[in-house]
Specification:
Blueprint: H1 2-15, E1 29-39, E2 42-56, E3 62-73, E4 84-88, H2 97-100, E5 107-109, E6 123-125, E7 135-139, E8 148-149, H3 155-162, H4 165-182, E9 190-195, H5 198-213, E10 219-223, H6 233-239, H7 242-251, H8 257-260, H9 264-284, H10 291-305, H11 309-314, H12 321-327, E11 335-336, E12 344-345, H13 359-378, H14 404-414, E13 419-425, H15 433-443, E14 453-458, H16 468-485
Parallel strand pairs: 4-7, 4-9, 9-10, 10-13, 13-14
Antiparallel strand pairs: 1-2, 2-3, 3-7, 3-8, 5-6, 11-12
Helix pairs in contact: 4-5, 5-14, 6-9, 7-9
Length: 498
């Protein structure tokens, strides 16, 4: 009999996971810790709840668990007046780590003043966090961070349910509904913030939450937005990158002296006007543009871009961004970054049409990956042996039916409270600043919503907050946006005739 008990005991011990080796695949479990951070000179105490909340199918069966971290200020009793910000990054397939550990959260990773990695890796307090004015939840869609679908779903079922513009918006809206209910935040003013692909995500969510969950927002913040489904066409698509080329050439001191001696924000309006008023019509004429005019346009593009007239003419006035990243500093033996063109790279050979790699992204992964793995385990006390997906497997991504700009416009039209703010870095070549302005122009052709839209520019790239000066400024802009979009008590959400 004793041998039987010993055998059972050994089986139990073998089955139990060793400490630090838990796979932790639970789709519905959290852990809560406490912390304090000094923001703008004021100590702010908070709780941090991290773990997974399920996604259910239409029959109530759990099909995924989304990893999230929820920061809630501890000394606020009136949740009805306390804003809640729901934060997404992009990719698609990217974790929420970027804005979580470098922008709005109470801790930020250890980097230098311009955003480059330094050792030892780690995190520090964020004196610019917006936790003083709003609670924040960082959400990781399926196959990002520690978020996973259940193993019983086939790849085809995962694709159909999670991996596409419309699919992504639908299941995330349901997840938000559950989160808001669980944490008793229905009375709170609510905001969505999304970066990069997170911008079509939150734009689509604004309407899905209204129409399918009857949840109305106060604001949507678009950080480094994509085209939001707005078609450019050949001429606009080619021309609109010129202001970004100018900004990057100015940073690298490649412009003629008459431009280089001026400040960046003094130059750019001139280039923007030329782009819309002259360059778009010229490119639209294609091969029927008279040769004399073509030479003049090439000279003007060269003046504003730092490239030679020769290569501009060789490309028929349409300079691909990948070529620009390779060409601008080719004579110095460097390439420049796609998402932040302040960053330099080195290629196997100087010849070629595009860089070998993205120096800014490799730099960011260098600093963010150790920081988030350390932070989740040691600060948030979440233990798992799952791999943290900085970028997870979500492809192929179904991009059909991307009407997210129109979704956001419609949500604003239906909800007089709803306001939109865009934040862009001048040196971002992936989601460039001028196209983010163009989005706003085209999103509301009537002009009736323009007073509820705002745009902010920063002297950095895609993740403008990595530059310490812009981290402070951009967070302050969010504070101002929250104040401007939080109505006075008893202020009705209605349109009035003048």
């Amino acid at each position: 009999m004793n041998k039987i008990y010993i055998f059972i005991a050994v089986c139990i011990l073998v089955a139990l996971p060793l400490k630090g080796q838990q796979l932790n695949t639970s789709m519905d479990s959290t852990v809560t810790t406490t912390g304090q951070v000094t923001i703008k000179g004021t100590p702010v105490k908070y709780t941090a709840t991290t773990g997974k909340q399920p996604v259910w199918d239409d029959k109530g069966k759990i099909i995924a668990g989304l990893f999230f971290t929820y920061y809630e200020r501890s000394d606020v009793k009136d949740k009805a007046r306390r804003p809640l910000i729901i934060s997404f990054n992009g990719g698609p397939g990217s974790a929420s780590v970027w804005m979580h550990l470098a922008y709005t959260g109470p801790k930020i990773l250890t980097i230098d003043e311009e955003g480059y990695p330094i050792q030892p890796y780690g995190v520090k307090d964020n004196p610019n966090s917006i936790l003083d004015v709003a609670d924040i939840v960082y959400v990781n869609p399926v196959n990002t961070g520690y978020s996973r679908a259940v193993d019983s779903l086939s790849d085809k079922e995962k694709q159909k349910t999670f991996f596409g513009v419309k699919q992504d918006i639908k299941y995330l809206a349901s997840w938000i509904d559950t989160f808001v209910t669980r944490h008793n935040r229905w009375e709170s003013p609510k905001y969505l913030i999304g970066e990069s692909y997170g911008t079509p995500r939150v734009s689509g969510l604004s309407l899905e939450l209204q129409n399918s969950h009857w949840m109305y927002l106060n604001g949507v913040i678009l950080v480094s937005p994509t085209n939001l489904g707005i078609e450019r066409g050949v001429a606009v698509g080619a021309a609109n990158f010129l202001p970004y080329y100018t900004a990057t050439a100015w940073f690298h001191k490649k412009l003629p002296q008459d431009l280089q001696s001026r400040d960046l924000t003094d130059i750019l309006p001139e280039v923007e006007q030329y782009t819309i008023n002259e360059l778009v019509p010229a490119i639209a004429k294609g091969g029927f543009l008279p040769q004399g005019e073509k030479q003049k346009v090439a000279a003007r593009i060269a003046h504003y871009s730092g490239l030679s007239e020769k290569v501009i003419l060789e490309h028929n006035l349409r300079i691909p961004r990948s070529f620009f990243w390779k060409e601008l500093l080719r004579d110095e033996g460097f390439t420049i970054g796609r998402l932040d063109s302040r960053y330099l790279g080195i290629d196997r050979m100087d010849a070629g049409e595009r860089p070998d790699y993205s120096p800014e992204l490799t730099t960011w992964l260098h600093s963010f990956t150790p920081a988030v793995n350390y932070y989740v385990k040691n600060y948030l006390k979440y233990d798992t042996d799952l791999k943290y997906y900085m970028f997870g497997p979500v492809r192929p991504w179904d991009r059909s039916g991307n009407t997210t700009a129109e979704d956001l416009r419609q949500a604003m039209a239906q909800n007089p409270y709803l306001k939109v703010m865009v934040q862009s870095g001048y040196y971002d070549g992936g989601t460039d600043y001028f196209n983010s302005k163009y989005n706003l122009w085209q999103m509301d052709p009537s002009g009736k919503l323009r007073d509820r839209m705002s745009w902010k520019g920063y002297r950095s790239g895609h993740m403008m907050y990595l530059r310490n000066e812009d981290l402070a400024t951009a967070n302050e802009h969010i504070r101002e946006f929250i104040r401007a979009s939080t109505p006075e008590e008893q202020e009705p959400a209605q349109y009035t005739r003048k």
